[in-house]
Structures are given as structure tokens and as C-alpha cells.
């Protein structure tokens, strides 16, 4: 059974009604074409009202949609000759992060991304997309390899955050993320980051330092989840919806704050409605970014990356 978000229930119900009428028309001699046309017109207006006026909490729910495309889904559409590489050469392999080499428009690139599961069994195997330190060290190993062989790095961000368990802390979770931040800042090849779902906390930042940062329209990017922020600010995680509105975590808000470079439009109703078309939307911005960044020499690339993060965000000074 398909997962339906609360705010889109009227749209889903109307779609199902139209589908049922079309089925009746095919299976009987009744002519319901006028009714179908009327309902399709109503559906178009309803979709506009629902999806074009989504609140921040609605986008949080969309970013968490269980059918939302993952890193591996986009790899299938965007790249050819993908060869997944495993392990951090220190401890083990973390399946919450997938990484490897591939070709994009015939040219070699390194692809790294968070990977959550599509069902309970896969989510357990991939730790619900929450990486351990060996995941970040695997990513860093691939980034350094890309730097050595002059391959652009493309990352896909989709995690609630790095795994906060005791074992991860014992193996150096915070150090692994911090090292990634430092090393990514100094890579001499183009780095493009795409937030495709939830971009949560340091777990997202561990793959998020790049020359260009893009976000899908219904993705989120924040230092903490709305539930966590509500629990800290108001001692009540049930106020997550209020926190989502306050935190400015949507793609539109972050574009205005200059935290990201561009918002990638989504298929109306969410990226899961048409993964192939959504991949084409992503392909366009990656192509344009690589065409621009590949023209720059190493010194200019590093200087512009430094300037980007030096001025990122929006600040207000208070006279005290």
C-alpha cells in the first residue's frame, strides 16, 4: 500500500476516484468521459492548492517519505559504469554510505551518498541511513582518491544525522566528521553536493562541503531535527511543526539565506512520483555546475570555496 501524507490525502483520494471511473468506462458500456474530465480539472486545481502552498512541516514530511528516491536510485539514472567501492581500510564497511567511481556524460567522477533502506530489513542493514565513523572515513578515502586522479566529486545528502550510539562515539564519530569538513574544504577538484531528502546535523555536513550546494525543492537541511529543536527550545517534541517553521530549513529559505546555491524543482507531488524526470532535473544542474567549475584552476577553486563559506548565511547584529 502506498504511503500517503496527511496533507495530500484529498489529492490521492481524487486521483483514485478518477482511476476507478476510467476502469468502469473500460469494463462497461457506460460513458463517463464528461465526469472524468470534470474531475481531472478539479484535480489540477487541487494539486495546485495543495502542492504549491506547502508549509515547512509538509516539506519535512515529504523529505521523509518512505518512497522518496535514494542515492542508489539516482545513480542508476544519472551515471554509467558505476563501480561501488567498500570499506575505510581501518575498521569495516558502512552500508549507510555508498561510494564509488562512475562516468557522468562519459567522464569519470566519484559519487558518494547517504543510503537509507526501502523496507525494514534494508533499513536495519543500512542503519536507517545514519552513518558510523567508518562510513565517513570510507567517503574520505574515496574523496582523496578522486583528488589524486583529478575526478570531480558528487555527493548526495540524505540522512537524519550521524549515528549517535556508543559504538560510533568509541570509534571517533565526531573526529571523522570534523576531518571530512577539513579535507573537503581543501580538495583541488570540483565538489558538488545535492540534498535529496533530509540533511540532518553534522551527519549531513560530513558530505556537504562543496563548491556548489543544491537542494531538491522538498528536501530539508538543518543543524537538528524539528523534533529535537522543539524538545530543546520548548521542552516538547510535539511542537515540531512550530520548530520547522521557525528554523528556516526548507530549500526556499536556505536559498534566501545564501546557504545553498540553487533549488532543484521537484515533480508536483514529490520526487517519488517520477524518479526518471526528477533525475533529469538534477542532471541539468550538475552538468551546468561541472561545465563552470571545470574551467577553473586549482587556486581559483580553493579561493572561491573559501570565500563561499566565509560569507555564507545571513546575520543580524544587535546593539547591546
From TrEMBL:
Enzyme class, UniProt record, top EC level: transferase
Catalytic reaction equation(s): N(6)-carboxybiotinyl-L-lysyl-[protein] + acetyl-CoA = N(6)-biotinyl-L-lysyl-[protein] + malonyl-CoA
Top-level taxon: Bacteria
Keyword list, A-Z: ATP-binding, Coiled coil, Cytoplasm, Fatty acid biosynthesis, Fatty acid metabolism, Ligase, Lipid biosynthesis, Lipid metabolism, Nucleotide-binding, Transferase
Function of the protein: Component of the acetyl coenzyme A carboxylase (ACC) complex. First, biotin carboxylase catalyzes the carboxylation of biotin on its carrier protein (BCCP) and then the CO(2) group is transferred by the carboxyltransferase to acetyl-CoA to form malonyl-CoA.
UniProt record similarity statement: Belongs to the AccA family.
Protein name: Acetyl-coenzyme A carboxylase carboxyl transferase subunit alpha
Species, as recorded: Halobacillus campisalis
